[in-house]
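Schema walk-through. Below, the input block comes first and the output block second. Nothing else is stored per chain. Lengths vary across the set, and this one has 251 residues.
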Amino acid sequence: MGRLDGKVAIVTGAGGGIGRAMARALAREGARVTAGDIDEEGLAGTAHDAEGEIRTQRCDVSKAADVQRLVADTVAAFGALTTMCNNAGISIPARVTELSEEDWDRTIDVNLKGVFLGCKYAIPEMLAAGGGSIVNTGSVNSLVAEPFLSAYCASKGGVLMLSKEIALDFAREGIRANCICPGWVDTPINWPHAEMMGGLGEVLRTLPDWQPIGRQGYPDEIANVAVFLASDESSFMTGSAVVVDGGMTAK
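--- output ---
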C-alpha cells in the first residue's frame, strides 16, 4: 500500500518546480491529486507519465472564485478532500524603497492571500471528510530575512504565522497545518534573486559558505517532506515550521 492511499490532495503552483515534485510524489504514494496552476502547459508536463492519478486545473490562487472552484471540482471528481498543499508562490526581488506598489500587492496576493484562500475553502471539505492535513510552503524567509526580498520575506513570514494560527483553531477538529521552510532550492523562482546576487553561477560558487550541506536542494527533497506531512506518519505534528534548508538557518 502507498503511504497516502485513500487521500485526496490539491497542490497549487504545480506547473513546475517544488509544486510539480509534490504533486507527482503524492500521486506516487497513492493520493488522488488535483494539480493547480496558471501555467496550463506546465500542468500538462506535471501530469505526463505520472505514477498515480493526477487531474489538472487552471487556477489563479489570488482569485477567490478560482480557488473555490478548484476545491469544489476536486471534491466532485474524487468525492472528498483530505490534503491541501498551498504551494503557489512568486518572488519579485527588490528593496522596499524600490518595490512598486503593484509588485508588493501581487506578491502578497499570491504568496499569502493564496494560502488564506486555499485554507478557507479547503477546511470545510476536510472537516466533512473527518479531518486532514494542510501543508503550506513557506521559506527560510519565514524565519530569517535576506537582502532584496522585502515583499517575499513579508509574505513568507505571514504564511508561517497563518499556518500556526490555523493549527490552533482546528487542532481538536482533526485538521493539522504545518509549514515547510525550504532553503535555496534548484527552481526558477530563485533566478531573479540570483541575478541580484551576482548571477546564478556566483550563487552556486558561494553557496557552501551559507548553506552548510554544500549544495542547493532539489524539488524532490522538499516533496518528500510534503508526503510525510500529508501522511498519518506525522499525526502528532501541527503548527510546525519544518525547516529543510541544508543547515542554512543553523548558524
